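Re: the request from the purification team.
They wanted to know what the chain is likely to look like in 3D before they choose a buffer screen. I agreed to run a prediction and write the result into the notebook, where they can find it.
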Amino acid sequence: AFGGLQGEVLAVTGTNGKSTVVTLLAKMLEADGKKTALAGNIGLPLSAVADRPFDKIVAELSSFQLEETLSFNPHIAAFVNFAPDHLNRHADVEAYYAAKCRLFQNQTRQDFCVIDLDDEGLSCRRLPTYAKLYGFSRTKSLKYGCCVRRGDILFCQKKTAEVEDCRLPGRFGLSDALCAVTLAKLAGCSDEAVRSALRGFSGRPHRLERVREKNGVEIVDDSKATNAAAAVRAAENFQKSVVQILGGSDKGEDFSSFFRELPANVKACVLYGEAVQKLDAAARAAGVKFVSLPDFTAAAETAFSLCAPGEVLLLSPGCASIDQFANFEQRGVRFAEIAQTF
C-alpha cells in the first residue's frame, strides 16, 4: 500500500502501547485541523487509505507486517518499547527485534526516528537508521524530544503541556502520551491541539479499563496485555494489592522470568487456559501464590473471591486469547459480563 499513500506518513511499532499512541496521535493531528487517516494493525488496512489524499497518515505496524517490507519509508517513525513477544512465530527475540527494525531501514537524514529512552529492551540494542533521533522519557532531561520537568511536558525544552493534562492511567500511560506528543510536534502540531487531545483521551477499550467497583474491589480489564511484559507493567500501575488473572494461548514466552518480575503488590494469581500448565510450573518454581483453573469464567469468579475490599481484580493475562476467544476484545467483553454478576 505504501506506494499509493498520499500524505506524510507517521508510523509506530513496538511491543506494547502502539494502539494507544497512534490513536492519541491521530486525535492531536485532527485537533490541529489536519486531514488524518489512522490505519494499519489497528484495524483498517493501509490499502484502504491508498490513493486518497490526506495531510497525515498514521500507521500502527506489527512485526508480522514489517518482516517482509522492502520499500516502506515513513517520514516520522517511533519504536514505543520492546520486550519478548510472538516467539511462536519468530525464531527468537533477536529475530523479532529485527522485524521491528525494518520500519527504520529506509529512513534518511531528512526523516525522524523516535524511541523510548526509559525502555531497557531498546537501550541495550542498536537501532539501524540514518534518521534524526528524538527520544521521550519520564525520568531524563532531553534536548531533542519529550520529557517531564516539575509537572510540565517539554518538547525540545519548551513547555507544550502539563502532566495533569494526560488522562491515560499509570506511568506507562504517561510514556505513551510523551511518545504521541513527540510525534505530533515533529509533524507540526500546535501546543493547543496537543493539550486538547490529551485532555479528551483516557485510553482505548481493554487497556487498564475500569469495569466497575464491587464491595470495595476495583475491577480492571487489561485484556489487551497479551505478553508477559505488558502484564507486569499493568500490575505496576497500582499501589493497592492485586489479584491478577493470567493465561490464555501460549505465544512461546518464558514465564519463569515473568513471575520473578511480578511486583510485590500482586498477592495472588489465578491461572487459566491453554498455557495453564506452563504457567503453573513457572509460578510454583517462583514461589508465587496461585490457583489454576481451566475455564475463564471460573478463573474470574475465583479471582474475585480472593479479593478483599480496597484491592484490585486485574485481568492482565500475558497471553493471547485464541484458545477460548476469537480475540482479546471478546475476552474483555466476557470479563465485563462476568463482573456484573459479582
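For the purification team: The chain has a mean pLDDT of 95.
Please add any questions underneath this entry.
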